[in-house]
Amino acid sequence: MVAALLFIVLPLVLIVVAWRMKPLVPRDGRPGDAVGGSLAAGGMFGGHGLEPDARSVREDTEAPRFDFSDVKARE
């Protein structure tokens, strides 16, 4: 009986309570912040006042190419 309470009833009750709880930080209405992360971070660390980017830009991740043709060989 105790095992059923611990492994079946208690997890189900906790899941239901978690779905019914009000979030601590309301969702941000801006399009770049889906779950209000910047609003929560702004409350902890101070906001920067900037709007999120309208579109994301791919980061340049190509490997740099070096030209060592002018370097002398070691003697």
TrEMBL record:
Q: According to the UniProt record, where is the region Disordered? A: 46-75
Report biased composition (Basic and acidic residues) as residue ranges.
Answer: 50-75
The domain of life for this entry's organism is Bacteria
Any idea what this protein is called?
A: Uncharacterized protein
